[in-house]
Hints:
The protein is α+β, with helices and mostly antiparallel strands. The chain has one domain: Alpha-Beta Complex (Aspartate Aminotransferase, domain 1). The protein is 35% helix and 26% strand. It is built from four helices and six strands, in the order αββββαβαβα. A six-stranded antiparallel β-sheet has the order 1-2-3-4-6-5. A hairpin with a 4-residue loop joins β3 and β4 (45-49). It is globular. The termini are far apart. This is MmcQ/YjbR family DNA-binding protein. It comes from Phenylobacterium parvum.
Amino acid sequence: MPVTAARAKALALSLEGASEHPHLDRTALRTPRKTFATLARDGADINLMFDPDLRDFFCEQEPLAFSPVPGGWGRMGATRCDLEAVDEATLVSALKAAHALAAPRPRTRRTR
């Protein structure tokens, strides 16, 4: 069953520390550290900021729903998710994976 843009945004914003911000012609979904996804204004798709290994995994598992973003962003791991072709459970898994990559890194104590 397809996921609506409103539902995709709600799922993304339910992740710890997530917020939304304008981003060109899309809505950026961010952790305090960086963007983990961008939602198209028309609600047709959401781009997930994966690394190349995650991009390959999701594209292989669900080739009708996931594809690399064209160009350099796709080569770095950015992945387009067609909201008409993805089910909610798969989208949640993808959002969590992208969110984890963008999460703030734990602070380490420096010793002198």
